Amino acid sequence: MTETTGDTPQDIPATLLEAALVHVPFDGWSEATFRAAIRDAGIDPVVAQAVVPRGALDLAMLYHERADAEMRRRLNAEPMMGLKIREKITRAVRTRIEVIDDKEAVRRATTLFALPHHAGEGARMLWSTADQIWEAAGDTSRDVNWYTKRATLSGVYSATVLYWLGDDSHANQATWEFLDRRIEDVMRIEKAKAQMRDNPVLKRVFAGPSWVLGRIKAPNRAPRSDVPGRWSGPT
Question: What letter would DSSP give residue 42?
């Protein structure tokens, strides 16, 4: 084992992540991968364990968060003004998938976060990605729609990623067609909701539930860091 590099504690997770990605295709996001990353990066094991306490799990989360940051960077570089909402969402989901530089790393992460004891972290990251896509699309809802939009998009995004993992079509064309169909399904739901709101009979029937749902407010959130590869650890 070599001595710890000159990385600051904030840099160490990114250094370990780069070293781990070489081993993920063979050992997944596992303890073996974490130990190999420590060895290859020349990080003192005690320091690595202190900065990344949950090992490969934290590195898998960092990999996902780094891709989210790169998606935001690309979307911010090409504003989506003038696009319809479905076009914005489609473009954002495509961008999020296109920033992934290692399909096997995602495949292994999907297996990791399917485990019951990691499912909560997986759901949190998926929700965060959906939230950031809606933010990029200019969503300003602060009521119950804030939740329903993100829940629906979480389903669309996760289904599209799973389809993409098995897609061998040219330039992922089959994946983009699958995404278009899922977005169309969402648009049908939104159209049905609008028709229900405009129907005087249904409007009266759902007056009570609508009032209750109308009392729900979106949470306050702290500012997000947009620095890819840097991480403050799990919260």
Answer: T
Q: For the chain, what is the domain count?
A: 2
CATH number for the domain spanning 200: value is 1.10.357
Is residue 108 domain-shared with residue 174, that is, in the same domain? yes
Give 234's Cβ-side CA count (13 Å radius). Answer: 16
pTM for the model stands at: 0.82
* Residue 132 CA: distances (Å) to CA of 68, 100, 123, 143, 193: 8, 16, 14, 17, 24
One-character DSSP codes across 66-89: HHHHHHHHHHHHS--TT--HHHHH
Same domain, 45 and 80: no
Residue 234 lies inside a defined structural domain of this protein: no
The secondary structure element, H or E, covering residue 50 is helix 45-51
If asked whether residues 70 and 2 sit together in one domain, one would say no
Taking 70 as the threshold, does the pLDDT of residue 202 lie above it? Answer: no
**pLDDT of 188:** 74
pLDDT at 193: 55
pLDDT at 95: 98
Tell me the residue range of the domain where 76 lies.
65-214
